[in-house]
User: Which sequence fits this backbone?
């Protein structure tokens, strides 16, 4: 069967549009897709991974690649996401349980051991300075040209304190870390998406789709303005902007959201930010199945949810996806859930034929109307928020925090009063003793990785302390100088065996904050 | 006659580095809707801090919200801190990650009640009321 026929042999066009008119996929304003599908190519298949030590996660990567995964998608454990070292008093019971523990150069070297840095794509849900710095220093040490590095790092400066990624860093510092790391990667790692706007993690507060994208655009615009203000040409960094969004169960709305976002983005980049390069106007979209839609009850039902969401994301034309399935309500994916998620993607990719024609829903009265309305509502919400005041001031005043808290409270009420239905949870439930299918696998716990705590304690004692102190001092001084890019001294500190927790601490000090606001640990600079 | 009762006062806390607040804030709203006074102590708590706040605020119940398994490792420390403070405050745990076998283990450990994903908001409210007002009313 030729690539461009249906199963019955009907010849297919790469896309369909009214004769002689209408927007083509891969052309401005990109409603119908970033590009026309190339034969044999679809989205990047990947699954969210990272568990225990860097060594354990490296083995997990290799196992996923052997099963057909095409890019790596790594998330840090909760101490790593909070920029706390494993030996921090708050981290004790969380090391390696919800992602990988990464706190120093040796961890990054182990994470990427034996992996082809010049051909794999590394998507990283990690603090962006550590993610970009870690990948860069490992590549440099191995002699891999940084220009070849591909992947992405999430930038979460505006909302990190309000949602799940608080690092106890002041907003001015968070913004600087984001823009410095983007500026650094734009120059040194031009293929890397250093500005991945992550609307996924903050949507897990219970936002609906318009709120999700409006807040995403508000943050994206905040970064773009800051980068342009520091004199970087929009066409230097914009071709590598992406959005990592969530996919809920209202499938047509989710598809329309993606189409509307591409169009909004294209017009914004061209008309407002003056982009001239077409690549600066064509948004990269990656998606992750919404954890909030997955239930703890009857976990096998989540496999069906993941399948439908994967299909929706394929129909919307995303560049990469992650499908979390049956154990999502309990944990980061188990090996079994990884396999189900990956096979789900492969079934959609190889069996359904949905990848053969770009934007197959384009032209549907319903989908086009919904796309127009999503675009109108997202744009209006962005205008409303930006009219409320200076974005940084709004963030400091708790304006966004209130949006997220309202969403969290609304979600609880909607589930309690039946406004939101979830099969197996709010309706069609089964007695506890009958709810056994995949339950054992879903509930299997990941034990805290205490050997990593011991290892880091030993590592901290065995380092060249003077070298560490010197590098942290240099990072601190660089942070006091607004005119320099922090990434150079950040990478130098990691190279000198400073830990991520220590770098965060001295950066806080440079911005007039306590080294360790949680437990009052002493700063290595004060000793 | 109607009892002139003060509202039930409950402290809601998340432990360790678990930063998922969706359950904690959702249940806080539902408990407030049910007429309770909620002291929301948010993220990044350790057992000593939770118990100190609970005693200072004179709460009737300590509620631990959990979206990761860290809480399981902290419960013994919470009981030790309560004993050292000479406080007798019931501790309840709730969260989507709380399984049936976790519940059994925690109840044996001394938890007053545990709520997993199956418990409805009204069941949680009723259970907390039962814990504080075993005979149907609490007076000042």
Assistant:
């Amino acid at each position: 069967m030729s690539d461009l026929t249906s199963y019955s042999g009907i010849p297919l066009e790469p896309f369909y549009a009214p004769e002689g008119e209408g927007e083509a996929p891969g052309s401005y304003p990109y409603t119908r897709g970033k590009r026309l599908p190339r034969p044999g190519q679809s989205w990047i298949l990947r699954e969210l991974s990272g568990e225990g030590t860097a060594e354990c996660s490296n083995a997990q990567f290799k196992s996923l690649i052997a099963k057909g995964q095409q890019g790596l998608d790594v998330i840090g454990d909760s101490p790593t996401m909070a920029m706390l070292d494993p030996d921090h008093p708050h981290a004790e019971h969380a090391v390696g349980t919800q992602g990988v523990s990464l706190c120093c150069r040796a961890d990054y070297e182990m994470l990427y051991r034996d992996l082809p840095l010049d051909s794999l794509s590394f998507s990283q849900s990690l603090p962006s300075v550590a993610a970009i710095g870690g990948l860069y220093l490992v590549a440099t040490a191995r002699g891999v040209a940084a220009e070849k590095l591909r992947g992405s790092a999430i930038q979460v400066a505006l909302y990190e304190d309000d949602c799940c990624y608080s690092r106890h860093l002041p907003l001015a510092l968070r913004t600087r870390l984001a823009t410095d790391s983007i500026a650094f990667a734009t120059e040194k790692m031009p293929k890397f998406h250093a500005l991945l706007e992550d609307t996924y993690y903050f949507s897990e507060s219970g936002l609906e789709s318009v709120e999700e994208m409006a807040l995403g655009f508000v943050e994206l615009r905040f970064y773009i303005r800051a980068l342009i203000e520091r004199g970087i040409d929009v066409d230097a960094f914009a071709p590598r902007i992406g959005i990592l969004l969530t996919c809920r169960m209202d499938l047509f709305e989710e598809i329309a959201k993606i189409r509307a976002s591409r169009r909004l983005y294209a017009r914004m980049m061209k008309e407002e930010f003056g982009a001239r390069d077409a690549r600066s106007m064509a948004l990269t979209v990656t998606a992750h199945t919404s954890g909030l839609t997955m239930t703890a009850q009857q976990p096998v039902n989540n496999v069906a949810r993941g399948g439908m969401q994967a299909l929706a994301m394929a129909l919307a034309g995303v560049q990469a996806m992650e499908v979390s399935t049956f154990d999502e309500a309990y944990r980061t994916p188990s090996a079994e859930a990884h396999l189900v998620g990956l096979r789900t993607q492969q079934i959609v990719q190889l069996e359904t034929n949905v990848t053969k024609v770009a934007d197959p829903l384009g032209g549907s009265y319903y989908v086009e109307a919904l796309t127009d309305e999503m675009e109108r509502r997202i744009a209006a919400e962005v205008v409303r928020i930006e009219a409320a005041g200076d974005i940084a001031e709004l963030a400091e005043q708790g304006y966004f925090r209130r949006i997220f808290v309202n969403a969290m409270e609304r979600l609880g009420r909607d589930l309690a009063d039946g406004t939101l239905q979830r099969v197996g949870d709010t309706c069609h439930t089964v007695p506890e003793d009958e709810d056994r299918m995949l339950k054992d696998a879903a509930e299997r716990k990941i034990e805290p990785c205490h050997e990593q705590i011991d290892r880091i304690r030993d590592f901290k004692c065995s380092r060249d302390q003077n070298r560490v102190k010197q590098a942290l001092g240099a990072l601190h001084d660089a942070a006091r100088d607004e005119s320099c890019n922090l990434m150079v001294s950040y990478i130098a500190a990691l190279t000198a065996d400073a830990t991520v927790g220590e770098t965060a601490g001295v950066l806080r000090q440079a911005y007039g904050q306590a080294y360790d606001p949680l437990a009052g640990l002493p700063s290595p600079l004060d000793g | 006659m109607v009892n002139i009762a003060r509202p039930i006062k409950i402290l809601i806390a998340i432990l360790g580095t678990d930063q998922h607040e969706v359950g904690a804030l959702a249940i806080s709203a539902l408990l407030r809707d049910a007429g309770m006074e909620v002291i929301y102590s948010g993220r990044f708590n350790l057992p000593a801090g939770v118990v100190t706040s609970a005693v200072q605020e004179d709460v009737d119940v300590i509620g631990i919200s959990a979206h990761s398994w860290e809480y399981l490792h902290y419960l013994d420390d919470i009981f030790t801190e309560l004993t050292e403070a000479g406080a007798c405050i019931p501790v309840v745990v709730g969260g989507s990650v709380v399984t049936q076998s976790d519940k059994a283990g925690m109840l044996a450990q001394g938890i007053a009640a545990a709520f997993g994903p199956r418990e409805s908001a009204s069941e949680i409210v009723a259970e907390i009321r039962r814990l504080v007002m075993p005979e149907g009313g609490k007076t000042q």
